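Side project, low priority. Logging it here so it doesn't get lost.
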Amino acid sequence: MTAMRDDLFLDSAAALKAAREAVFSETLDRIFAYHPHYRQLFEQKGIGRRDIGGIDDLVRLPVTGKTDFVARPADFTLSLPAGFDAEERVVWDVMYTTGSTGDPTPFTSTSYDFINILALNRNMLRLRGVTDSDSILNLFPLTRHPHGAFARAMNAAAAFNIPIVAAMPGAPSARHPDLGSRMDAVCTLAGRSNATILWGVPSYIRKMLGRAEEMGVALPAVRLVFVTGEGFGEEARQDLVDRLKRLGAADPVISVSYGATEMQGGMVECRPGAGYHNPAPLQFLFEAVDPDSHAPVADGEEGLILLTHLDRRGTTMLRYALGDTARLTRDRCPHCGALTERLVSVPVRRDGFLKVRGMLINPQALADMLASEAGIADYQAIVDKQDEADALSMDRLRIRLLPRSDAGDDLAPRLADRVKSTIGVMPSIEIVAADDPAFADRGWKARPILDIRKKPE
């Protein structure tokens, strides 16, 4: 295995800070002179370049919210003039954030940024224990708006100089229907590729493994599974391990990533339960602050997670709120020895809870429970009204269920009881067929609960 970069394993916190300050100083110079959003903000606040000497002064800046970015995304891209090196100015690619209303929001990377992205993704693989003997099966779909998942998996393999096979699940284009792969073809490819790493969205990987088992496809080479894009609990992790062992994998490890378009990668585990590591501490700085006052919280306390770009030239952000709360530590990891920020609790969306029949429920708790149910091939959870024409009628939670062929007759009532005990709301269970259109083209991230209730006028 190639030696890790020193940016993860510096001798001390002082050495890390000094290295960060060096790259951040150049970024700050460019932000104050050429960043449309922050130039206007700093002028309004009366903040000059001398007022922000470096990382310690970041607390003087207001938090940037997603609404700020979505409203004027072009204003978050540095407008460097021709005097700067072309590497800093040339647009290499544009990815898009998800989760906003309307069209996804563009996130621009220059050639300078793309080299950093390769280094970032290489560090992600190293932290996860990848070696030069590994190979990857990319299970992300090709999407209409590039969200990074499909492309960055390919980039990561290139940065690490290991083979990768793109399964291309789904139907990326009606103009070329032969480019996509249906589930059975993906399962066959998984067996034929002999890949040691599966990389994709957990809900899709779970479904793929279930179908592979039905088809009799063996996956003895798989030793790592990288999951991202959805919340993922410990029951779901064990479920994937159990499924892989039934397919012949000897000792598979599930590695979870806390991904963000604003990183073009994600914070990753060096081992299960070790926390989500910042894999590029010279590119990113993370803070945890009080969600309301935005005052810094002590290490290990729950806080709103902020991201600052230390070394970017395209879309660049300072103290950007990712929208999740978690506990952050800056201590050296006791497992891998990396000196970098880690999230040592599962990030939770601040706005991710739903109120159903007066009960405040956590959609991710429902998703984790359903992922642990071996009899489910796929599902769709919907919150609507008993009377769709009446926005004031009683809420209803429906779970549309595609069972596995070997699921028992008691699946529906047993599942309803488990849902009730997990989130406090009794659902109605609807058994659907495999060709139900609701399960087609749902995007690369599955939403735990689809809330389609009409709001009262």
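Brief comment: The chain has three domains: 6-116+269-349, 128-260, 354-451.
Revisit when time allows.
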